[in-house]
Structures are given as C-alpha cells and as structure tokens.
Write a structure and sequence with these properties.
- The complex is a heterodimer of chains A (334) and B (203).
- Chain A has 334 residues and is an all-alpha fold.
- Helix content of chain A is 72%, strand content 2%.
- Chain A contains 13 helices and two strands.
- A two-stranded antiparallel ribbon of chain A has the order 1-2.
- Chain A starts with a helix and ends in an 18-residue tail after the last strand.
- In chain B, helix 5 (83-98) runs antiparallel to helix 6.
- Chain B has helices spanning 3-18, 26-41, 45-54, 57-79, 83-98, 102-142, 148-165, 171-176, 178-181, 188-196, 199-202.
- Chain B is elongated, with a radius of gyration of 26 Å.
- Chain B has eleven helices and no strands.
- Classes of the chains: A mainly alpha (334), B mainly alpha (203).
- Chains A and B meet through helix 2, helix 3, helix 6, helix 9 and helix 10 of A and helix 1, helix 4 and helix 6 of B.
C-alpha cells in the first residue's frame, strides 16, 4: 500500500514540483503513514492504527490530481495500468496463505478489467459497478473466517470466540458495503471483548477456583491447604448451589476441563496410572472427602443460584454452550 | 469514450452500494445524490467539473465516508450503553465535522486521536480491572488462612487501579453501569454479597 502511495507521490513531485503547497501537505501525510507502518507490529496493526489516515491520503492525492503541472501539458486521463497499480501492489503484499481461490478470482477479475478498459476512468467505473473495490476487502475476510478460526477457538474451549466467528461469518456473507462490514465487525468485536471477561469469571468461579485449591492440597497437604479446599467448596455450594459431581456434569465446565485442563495434565497422570477423566475425578472426590471429613456439611444456596446473568437474561448453568446466549444487536437480537 | 458518462456511471454505482444500507451510509448517500443532481443539471461536463473543484466535492465525499463511519460507531456504543466510548467517538465525529479539507481532516483526526487515546485506554482498562476485582474477591473469600493477607492486598490494589481508570467507581455504579454488568455473571444479590465481603475496601 505504501509503495502505491510512494509511487503516486513521486509522480506528483515530478509533475508539480516539491514546493507545491498541496504536495507539501501530502508529503507530511505520507510521512505520518510511513511512521505508523514502521511502528506497527504487523499488517493488521498497521491497518488499525492508520485507518483514519488512508482516506485522507486518498483525498489529498485527488487534490493533487487537480493541481496545475509546472510544465504546461495537455491534461490526460490516466491509463488503467496507472490506476490499477496499487491493486497489483496490494495483491503481491497478500501472504500466500490468504490468496485462497475466491480472493484470487477477485483480483484476476480486477486485472482482466485493467487489460480491457480503455483508460483509468472506465476501469474505476467497472470496478464500482461490479463492487470489486468492496470485494477486495470482503472476500479475503470471508475466506479467513472459513479457514478454521472457529474450530481453533472450539478446540480450546472459547465459546465466546466460537459464537463470534459463527455470527461474523454470517454477517460478512450478507453485507453489501464497506461501511456495513466495518459496522458489523465492530459490533461483533465489541460483544466478544466483554464476553471474554464474562466467560473467564464463569469458569474461574465455578471450576478453576476449587481445582486450584485441590491441586494445592495435592502438592502440599496441610491444615492450611485443607482449609483452602473447604473454603472453595463452600463457595461453590453457597454461590452456585452445586457439589463436585453436579459441577463437573455441567457441559460448559466439562468442555473446559476436557479441552484445557485434561490435555495439559493427562500425560503426568498417565505416568501415575490414571488414564481417564473419570479416574481423575475420583481423585478429586477423594481429596474433597479428606478435606471435608468431620467438618459441618455444605450449605447450599438457593436453586436460583444455579443460574447466571448475561446481558439482562438469566440462564441455567446447565444450558451454557457455544451459541447459547441471546446477544442484543443494534439491528435486532442474534 | 464519454468521460462524463463514465463518471456518472461510477457515481451511480457507488450510490447504489451505499443505498444497500442507507442507515449506515446516509452522509454518503446525500453527497452522491448531490453530485449526480449537479451532473444532471449542469450545462456541460466542464461546468460540472468546475463545480466539483469549487465546492471541494471530492473532499466532501471522503468527509461523508468518515462522518458515516463515526456515526455508526456512536450508534453501536449508544446501543450497548457504553457512555465512555460513545464520548470518544463523538470527539472524532466532531473533528471530522469541523474539518475544511483533507489535510485539515487528517490534522484534526490526528489531534483528537492523541487526545482520546488515554480515554480509550481507560475505558477498556476499567472493564479489565472490574473483572479482576471479582476474581480477586472470590480468591480472597476462598483462600487458605496463610493466603488471606496476600489475596486481600490484591483486592485493595485492584480497587485502586479500578478507581484510577474510573474515578466514579462505586458499588452503585457496578450494579447499574451496563458495560460493567456485561462482564459479571451474577445478579444483584450475589454481587452485593461479594462486594460486602470486602466492604471496607469498596465503600
């Protein structure tokens, strides 16, 4: 992208002279963009940080096109090759991994029009009529969403990300303008940002807190660590009205255990003769029995405590799975 | 080739695209309509081209795109009732609204981005710290005797960080500010019970 701007800047410098007022402004903007590019960690970071400036840069280039050249020359309509040059640069800058079949088709069509168009104006008109300016952004985004991101999120028990990818792919497949794409992307990203914290608090308070206490006791059995297990177990009973068996039977918790905890610890436990999740749960149960021996019985909270609140709606803990929640959306619930 | 016709078809195509979601593109729809109306009423293409230059129409089209963009971001934040982020996008919308040419728009957006940056960071950081607060309260409530002091300190430190990112933080605000509720899994009763466990910190 910067090469494209750089090419244009050089052309205008030759045409208008380095001291042309609009050229000096454009040069400042180009320097800003270059600084952002140099500071950016990757292409996405560059797009995010430079987003506000791309349009301004394009506009100032249009202003430059209207400036009077220093050498008297007959105004000419740019050739399609000149106008298409940034798209060649953009295509060559897309990593091979993103050049999937549909993205290739879009660019092949762009370059086909470049060959057949009489000049740059006709090239841009056909590009606009065939929505290719938009498709160059949309199609790679759809292909990226289909490249396994959802499956990767599911593999590590991130239901909020699974939901994000499901909904965002549906949004992309239906959206028809860059503004809509950006708007829908922001809605989904915003929801997902909050949901990540929501899921983290859920899994920690229902599961990881108690498992952490049990693990501390396993590593270093003492009255102190026993008290930690008792406190965590009483919290689970009081705040969620669950005992260990009811907790581990929750689909959301079992999913997290299988995909996060078990894959991490199974080799260590296999060396100790524990080969299945059920056998491992029995160890947890034995430790809970030891830690709660001769202690007052658990006090369970009300049945209502087996529910959680998500954006004003209440859900039973046993209902929770990837796309379980009604997400309020500015265009209607999804 | 008819240059006028090529330009007309180009603007019509862009207008058609914008009309697929007029609610998200309404500034652009208005500008493209204005340009096409002028094209139709001009005596010649040269007259139209002169009008485009004199009225900064190219700049106004790109300004309309930015106005739509920030209006849409505001719409999202209003819907989710995130007042702090809404304010940040309003600052950006105002910068675009006041801009008089492309360079001015770039300058004003750069200035406002620098000014809004810390607000944006704080608006996100307070969500992070609020989530941490609940994690630390649960850790404190359930910790073993030897870890009580450490977990209590973590609650106090997190509350201080939360207060630094949201000076208005209070039990009442935690219960009523929508973005805070988006990250808390509990209803009012359990929230109050958890906060009461550290009431000397949060009061």
């Amino acid at each position: 992208m910067l090469d494209g701007y750089g090419f244009a800047m050089q052309s205008y410098k030759d045409k208008l002279g380095a001291d042309n007022e609009v050229f000096v402004k454009a040069e400042t903007m180009f320097a800003d963009l270059t600084a952002i590019a140099e500071a950016a960690s990757d292409l996405n970071d560059f797009y995010a940080k430079g987003m506000d400036k791309f349009q301004a840069m394009s506009t100032v280039l249009m202003d430059l096109a209207k400036e009077k050249p220093i050498h008297a020359a007959k105004p000419t309509v740019p050739s399609s090759a000149q106008v298409a040059q940034p798209y060649h640069i953009a295509y060559s800058s897309i990593g091979n991994i993103d050049k999937s079949p549909e993205t290739k088709k879009v660019y092949e069509r762009v370059f086909e029009i470049e060959q057949s168009a009489e000049n740059g104006l006709q090239f841009m008109r056909i590009m606009a009529e065939e929505n290719l300016l938009f498709k160059m952004t949309l199609v790679p985004a759809i292909e990226l969403e289909k490249s396994g991101l959802r499956e990767s999120a599911d593999a590590i028990s991130l239901p909020q990300m699974v939901a994000y990818h499901d909904y965002y792919l549906k949004d992309l497949e239906n959206c028809k303008s860059p503004a809509e794409m950006e708007y829908l992307g922001n809605v989904r990203a915003d929801v997902s940002y909050f949901d990540t914290y929501w899921e983290n608090l859920l899994v920690y308070s229902v599961y990881w807190n108690l498992i952490g206490a049990i693990t501390s006791y396993m590593i270093s059995p003492s009255e102190d660590t026993r008290q930690g297990v008792e406190n965590s177990y009483r919290f689970l009973a009081g705040y969620f009205s669950l005992d260990y068996d009811a907790m581990i039977a929750l689909p959301r918790i079992r999913d997290n255990f299988d995909k996060v905890a078990w894959v991490t610890i199974r080799d260590d436990w296999a060396a100790k003769g524990i080969h299945s999740q059920e056998e491992y749960f029995n160890i947890d149960r034995q430790i809970l029995d030891i830690c709660m021996k001769d202690r007052p019985p658990l006090v369970f909270g009300s049945e209502e405590n087996r529910k959680v609140v998500y954006r004003g709606s209440t859900y039973g803990l046993s209902e929770l799975s990837a796309n379980y929640k009604k997400i309020p959306h500015p265009d209607g619930e999804s | 080739m008819d240059i006028a016709q090529e330009q007309r078809l180009y603007y019509e195509a862009r207008l058609k695209e914008c009309r697929t979601r007029p609610d998200l593109n309404h500034h652009q729809v208005a500008e493209y309509e204005k340009v096409l109306d002028k094209m139709n009423s001009s005596a010649s293409f040269d007259d139209f081209s002169l009008w485009m230059e004199q009225t900064q129409a190219y700049f106004l089209l790109s300004k309309a795109e930015q106005l739509d963009r920030y209006s849409n971001f505001i719409k999202i934040q209003q819907f989710y009732k995130d007042a702090r982020r809404e304010e940040i996008f309003k600052m950006k919308l105002e910068a675009v609204t006041q801009s008089t040419d492309a360079f001015d728009m770039n300058t004003k957006l750069t200035e406002v981005n620098e000014k809004a940056g810390p607000f944006d960071v704080a608006a996100r950081a307070c969500i992070h710290e609020l989530s941490n607060l609940f994690l630390h309260i649960i850790a404190y409530i359930t910790s073993s005797p030897l870890k009580k002091d450490k977990t209590y300190t973590q609650v106090k430190e997190t509350w201080a960080k939360l207060k630094s990112t949201d000076p208005d933080i209070s039990v009442e605000k935690i219960l009523t500010y929508p973005p805070y509720r988006y990250v808390i899994i509990f209803e009012d009763e359990r929230i109050v019970k958890l906060l009461n466990a550290v009431k000397e910190v949060v009061s």
